[in-house]
């Protein structure tokens, strides 16, 4: 429709000023096209709930909206790992500048040397130097937790948040058993698909909030 101008009066600090305001000349109903988005909760950066891998937890309703927000918001230690070694419970390397390199020394010794404060989450990054998150196809060569690495972490620390800078916390070869270890007690939350480019190792304040979709 044609548009004509009128003036509206605004008062600021006791002085009135007039500004033009556009309005339609004729009243008409606004029409448009409705767009709908539908995607998996595993798109982009996401969390894994117990119901993701356990049918009885799924049936009981333990999905993403039942996770503890206090765990998802708070301090977290970012550690760096070798680009070509998965994280196991038997092998690690000496601690160097708050980085974990998993090749020779025992993981318990490395983990203890980190002196992770209670209530702190752990986020692992391989710096995504190959830009795996930017590839269209899923790449199975990413760095992730093996089952024994997850078991050691779950049994020997009080870490409740475990994150990784790719779409899966678990190593490709042990995806299901690793998830079972992390999620079977409903105590650990997995945070996957993080973007950690340029984030050095150290303690950070993490805030992972859900999207409002209702």
TrEMBL record:
Record-linked SUPFAM superfamilies: Putative cyclase (SSF102198)
Predominant localisation class: secreted
InterPro entries membership: KFase/CYL (IPR007325), KFase_sf (IPR037175)
Compositionally skewed regions (Basic residues) per UniProt: 9-20
Pfam family membership, one: Cyclase
Any GO BP annotation: L-tryptophan catabolic process to kynurenine
GO molecular function, one term: arylformamidase activity
Domain of life: Eukaryota
Keyword Secreted appears in the UniProt entry: yes
UniProt keyword annotations, A-Z: Extracellular matrix, Secreted
Subcellular location: Secreted, Extracellular space, Extracellular matrix
Family: Belongs to the Cyclase 1 superfamily.
PANTHER family, alphabetized: CYCLASE-LIKE PROTEIN 2
Protein name: Cyclase family protein
Taxonomic lineage from the root: Eukaryota, Viridiplantae, Streptophyta, Embryophyta, Tracheophyta
């Amino acid at each position: 429709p044609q548009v004509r101008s009128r003036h509206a009066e605004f008062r600021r600090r006791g002085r009135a000023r007039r500004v033009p305001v556009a309005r339609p000349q004729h009243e008409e109903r606004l029409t448009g096209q409705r767009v709908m988005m539908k995607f998996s909760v595993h798109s982009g950066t996401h969390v894994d709930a117990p119901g993701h891998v356990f049918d009885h937890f799924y049936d009981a309703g333990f999905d993403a909206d039942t996770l503890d927000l206090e765990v998802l918001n708070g301090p977290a230690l970012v550690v760096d790992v070798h680009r070509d070694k998965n994280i196991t419970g038997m092998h690690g390397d000496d601690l160097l500048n708050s980085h974990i390199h998993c090749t020779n020394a025992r993981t318990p010794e490395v983990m203890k040397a980190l002196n992770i404060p209670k209530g702190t989450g752990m986020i692992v990054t391989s710096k995504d130097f190959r830009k795996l998150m930017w590839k269209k196809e899923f790449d199975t060569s990413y760095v992730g937790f093996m089952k024994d690495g997850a078991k050691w972490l779950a049994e020997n620390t009080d870490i409740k948040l475990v994150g990784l800078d790719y779409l899966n916390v678990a190593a490709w070869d042990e995806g299901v058993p690793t998830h079972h270890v992390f999620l079977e007690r409903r105590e650990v939350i997995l945070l996957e698909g993080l973007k950690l480019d340029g984030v050095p190792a150290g303690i950070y304040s993490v805030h992972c909030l859900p999207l409002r979709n209702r």
